[in-house]
Design a protein that fits this description.
This protein is 37% helix and 24% strand. It is an alpha+beta fold and 301 residues long. It folds into two domains: 39 residues, no CATH class; 223 residues, 2-Layer Sandwich (BirA Bifunctional Protein, domain 2). The chain starts with a helix and ends with a helix.
Length: 301
């Protein structure tokens, strides 16, 4: 273990593992391959219809707020894409023998691209406030067992990422948080277009910094309540999940299907990832995503 983790370079480790798996596959038969396909949960087909998923994606991309760029991500991400900046154990990612990992969170990868674009802007103007906004629909893979309805080893997530500079007065945070939440509410409300009606929608705001509560109430929650009087919008001060992962404030969106079953669908919040990537405390980042495959699975008409 010491030799593999400390004495071998990543390129030498890659060469070693490639040789190991080449020799292993040379000893395997067609029957072995077939048995793998039957037994390995990671290689099973997706639960949803690609035709229905494409209809959902068309709806979602069509509802994107102005300024968002739709992007297509690689199936793999840099090694440590989740564990290095986020509070996620590396064991919860599927690592490849080529020193990459199967993408397990598209917002982490979009954050890296946001940082690259923000770095370009900062080289031109060290005080640039231009906001970089990305959206992607991506199939993710996570190895940990999740035993709840609608949990799959690989699944689609539609994610958003907004990166910029601190504007003072919590202005960047409020503007972009409102934009993300409005997008998801519009998407859920138009779910009937793709045969997925949602009801009893609720937005839970997690004020991880209690000093922001009054501002969030006045500048975020009250305006949203006027726009969506039928949506329940409230604070969730008891939630512990996400604390430490998200900073300052996070949100969660839940809804019920026609049978009355409750589903946790969308989640988001602020992180310091671009600040870490660029070694700049003024950088701000908001990430969010909706479990599109979970939504398609649980909200059939």
């Amino acid at each position: 273990m010491e030799a593999l983790t400390n004495r071998l370079s990543l390129s030498d480790l890659q060469s070693l593992l490639l040789a190991v798996y080449r020799q292993r596959t040379e000893k395997m038969s067609a029957r072995d391959l077939f048995n793998q396909y039957q037994q390995n949960r990671f290689v099973q087909m997706a639960s949803n219809s690609p035709v229905e998923r494409l209809a959902f994606e068309q709806l979602a991309f069509g509802l994107l707020p102005k300024g968002f760029r739709a992007v297509e991500l690689s199936p793999v991400a840099p090694l440590g894409a989740n564990s290095i900046v986020a509070t996620v154990d590396q064991i919860n990612s599927v690592v490849t023998v080529r020193n990459t990992e199967v993408c397990s969170d598209n917002t982490n990868v979009m954050a890296l691209e946001c940082a690259r674009q923000r770095r370009r802007l900062l080289l031109e103007n060290p005080k640039s406030r231009e906001v970089i906004k990305y959206a992607s629909s991506h199939r993710l893979m996570r190895p940990q067992l999740m035993e709840f309805p609608g949990a799959f080893p690989h699944f689609m997530v539609f994610g958003l990422c907004s990166a910029g500079r601190d504007e003072g007065g919590f202005k960047f945070e409020l503007n972009n948080l409102s934009e993300h939440i409005i997008f998801y509410l519009n998407l859920l409300k138009k779910g009937t277009v793709v045969g997925r009606p949602a009801k009893d929608i609720e937005v839970m705001i997690m004020p991880f910094n209690s000093k922001r509560e009054a501002l969030l109430e006045e500048k975020l929650m009250q305006p949203l309540s006027k726009l969506y009087p039928d949506v329940k919008i409230q604070f969730d001060r008891e939630r512990t999940s996400g604390r430490g992962y998200y900073l300052e404030v996070g949100f969660q969106i839940n809804a019920r299907n026609r049978e009355g079953d409750a589903f946790f669908l969308a989640d988001g919040g602020f992180t310091d990832w671009t600040s870490q990537f660029l070694s700049n405390r003024k950088e701000r980042l908001l990430i969010s995503g909706i479990g599109s495959e979970r939504f398609m699975w649980g909200f059939k008409r």
